[in-house]
Amino acid sequence: MSNYYVYGVIRASDDLEFETDAVAGADRIYTVSHRRLAAVVSDIEETEPEQTDEDAQRHDDVLREIMEYGDGRTIVPMRFGMVFENERALKNVLRGARPAFRRTVNDIEGTVELGLKLVREEDADVDREAIEAAVADELEPLAVDSTESDLFSDRLVLNRSYLVESEDREAFDEAIARFEDVHDDLLVQYTGPFAPYSFVDVHIGAQ
Hints:
single chain, alpha+beta, Alpha-Beta Plaits, 4-stranded antiparallel β-sheet, 10 strands, elongated, GvpL/GvpF
């Protein structure tokens, strides 16, 4: 009997099932429900899947498909590698973390995560504080929330993730384009949309 590989949690009323290229060669996504919540899963033989580049990309691609399914779905995303050996163990987690899941679904309803990295050109001398202020003035009014990530390079000036309402996505794109037009000393790396990993704080353990 196969195990359950979990991509995330949605409302049970948003039940879904579709065929796609899923993690570890699976070809079908479906839900396991408990009351008002449902885990989005695919079948998997192993309990500790290796995080290959291919399967990590499949995990993210499936989350994106779920977010775009039908008229759109709100999903609390799980990190790669969350596997449960049986339905009872999975439903126990849905039961135990129900308040946190329901609260988080409400918090991220109708949103996507967008990422922005600003990298200075090799010989450019930039005012980091001024750039941070300019970005905040331009983007923060268009975002529900934002969070800062590590500056892992000397040339990395800003590294932030933004939680943005889907209906504000176009305006956010345009704001990024305006910023890029007036800052030719910076390389703008704008990514997404992603499931809102950076704005989810539900911790569970696989079984």
